[in-house]
Structure formats: structure tokens, C-alpha cells
Amino acid sequence: MARLFCGIFLIILALPGPVTAEISPESVSVPAAASSGATQFPPRYSLRERRFSLRERPHRVELAVVDDLESPLFSLNDLRRFRAAANSDLLEIGEEFSRIFRYRLRQRLTLRVLSPAQYAVEVGNAKWTNAMFAGGVITVPIRGVSTRKLASLRRSLRHEYVHAVLFELSGGRAPAWLEEGVAQLLEGPPNPTLGEALHARLDGRGAFALEQLDHGFVGFDPDEVTAAYAQSLFAVRSLINRFGFSAMRCYLERLNQRSDSEHAFAQCYRMSPSTFQSNLTEQLDVWRRAGRELP
Ligand SMILES: [Zn+2]
What we know:
Blueprint: E1 5-6, E2 44-45, E3 50-52, E4 61-66, E5 74-75, H1 76-101, E6 109-114, H2 116-123, E7 132-134, E8 137-141, H3 147-170, H4 176-187, H5 193-204, H6 222-256, H7 261-269, H8 273-289
Parallel strand pairs: 4-6, 6-8
Antiparallel strand pairs: 1-7, 2-5, 3-4, 7-8
Helix pairs in contact: 1-3, 3-4, 3-6, 4-6, 5-6, 6-7
Bound molecules: zinc ion.
The site of zinc ion has 8 residues, from strand 1, helix 3 and helix 4.
């Protein structure tokens, strides 16, 4: 079963099933004019079965908007604005990340957009999720097109795009703490609630062992999930500050070649995972005692 990656504060869930079918070019269309004869201005459209092509090279991104009947309606202008924002964000993110990782995504990436109601049904109990990545598909809800909503969309797209890149580089073998750490590092400024959760964890039960964070955070208490995300960010920041992205790419590629994880880590980071764990525990302790606010 494939792993499903989510945005900040989002538990990595088991994938409930195939997310979406590939959209064929024939099915791509822009919504037609209002079909209803109602005198409503601006005309409103159901999102049902609206599909847009975002097939802009070189990123091969497509966007499908699907909906159920109980969802709010968005105007055609709203949909166009959303599409334009998502499109330019993804192009920009693709360019930026290809410079950071020195790697350009090869797989076809599909952006799947759901109404909030449909999205809520899909994520089930994980109501706090704001985006998901699985099997080459980024799924986001459309919550509006205000400047604030579109900024939040950009943050989600950055986070999920990292998962797409890391998945491809590592063949899906990167530890969850590394996935979530890099995704948070590149999504934007850290979420302000991370620090408090990490302090509570360190003051109480102490730092997580990294092995505890290898396979996702399913089964963690809700308050531990935030701390797990926070320590993942802290750990990745520590590695990036010292070794940069080239060592990370080295590690991911060795994992993809099915190298033993410990051996791959030692080769690319010139220390064993257990040495890194001890360094990390010390750094976390310094951070805790200094009363720093963000990991
Ligand atoms: Zn994530």
C-alpha cells in the first residue's frame, strides 16, 4: 500500500485507494457558459466534472476539479483565478526546486482539486489536513480565491511538491521524518505552533528516537503528531545546515538503489545514524534550554 503524504500537521495516512484516473486530453475542457436560465450575476457553476488542462511544459501538471452537489458554488472567474494561481505557483515551484535539488521531476504530476465537502469525506478523521500527495497526485480542496486562501494554497503546493520530488529521488524509501522535515523547510516560514509542541515533548518524554519517526506518525496521540512534525523539521534543518542538499540527494539516491539505510546515511553524511541521533539530542537540549520559539 502506497504511503500518503500530507501537509503540515497532517498525519501520513494509509492510502484509501486509487486517487484519480489520469485525465486524457479529450476530457480536458473549460466550463461552458452558464447553463441555467436564472438571472444570477455573476453566473455560478457547480464544480462537478470541470476539468482544466495545466499541461504546461516542462511540468506536465493537470488540474481536475470535481465536486459533489452539496458544495458551495464558485463563479467561473473564481475557477479561472484558482487555476491561474495554481498553474503559476507550480511552474515557479518546479523551477525553484529543480535548482535546490538539482533535479527536475520526471513523473507526470496531477493536481486534483476537490470541493471542501468532498475533500473532508476523503480525509476522514484527519480533518486538519490541507493537502495530500500520493501516487503522483496532489489533492487540495478549493476553499476560495482570496489573497489569503491563495497564499495558503501556495504553501500546500510547495509542501506536497517536495513529497513528489523526494518520492521520485528515493523511490519512496525516505524516512518519514526526512520527508516531513524537508517539506516543512521548503513550504515557507515554520508553523508557529510547532515550537510549543516540541518544548512540551522535550520537557515531558524527551526527544523522539529517529526510528520512531521512520514510518509516519499514524497511531501517535494528536498532541504528539505536532511534536513529531516539529522534530522532523529540526532534524532536517540540522542536516541541511551542515551538509546541504547535495548530501541529502546522495542519501536519497542511495536509498533508491536499495542500499542499506544505515550504510547510505554513513556514506553521504560521514557519520552513523546513531551519531546523528546523539548530536540531534544535544542540539534539541540546547534549543530547549534557550527557550527558542521555533524549531
Ligand atoms: Zn507532508
